[in-house]
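Our working data are protein records whose layout never changes between entries. Instead of coordinates, the fold is spelled out as a row of discrete tokens. Here is such a record, shown just as it appears in the course material:
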Amino acid sequence: MAHIEIKGISAGCESKLVLDNLSLNFELNKCYSIIGPGGSGKTTLFNIITSNVNKDIMWVKGDVRVQVENVFSLPQSSPFQDFEALKEYMYIPKFIEKENPLWDKINAYKNQEIDKIPKGIRKYLAINQFEQGKKNIYLLDEPEVFNHDTIESLIDLIQKMKKSGIVLVSTHHIGLAEAVGDDIVFLRYGQLLFSDTLQEFIDSKKEEIIDVRIYGC
């Protein structure tokens, strides 16, 4: 069964502390929205989970146990840097059905150069591709480069992912965090300020957290 257990994780670069004694558990069939200001350690947390840390630059202490076989990690940078890979993928009917509300938008870019295709479209295609592959863990680092027309499709994809695994979404978009998160995790300066259910976030913590997020960066 897919499970992620993080115990007392600290990480940093020389004297700069990026994560400070972080302990979290992530369970199957749930989506966790990881929120916080830039530099709070969200991307570093994802890199530690996927063992994608350059030990020559960053030190890491603590314990991470990832009980899983297949992990999909979507970085902040644009996927599909190679146009032929993207073009080939765009023509796989079982992945992108014409009933998809984004079909016209995606199809419109089929003859464009790769750097002309919006990062949001490339991210959507990458997420959709790996949702079809039914991974056990999905780590989505700031997928909200989508515009208003595509955000609903992103939410639908995340809900599908949750049925087969654990979903972690790092985002600055409070609306997206609320729409997909069963639990909300708030980080600031590498410290865990809040980790609880979405309902608890809405009922008693939301305004306090948003104030810290906006004014405490």
User: Anything to note?
Assistant: The chain has one domain: 3-215. Strands lie at 3-13, 16-27, 31-35, 59-67, 71-74, 137-141, 166-170, 183-188, 191-197. The chain has a mean pLDDT of 77.
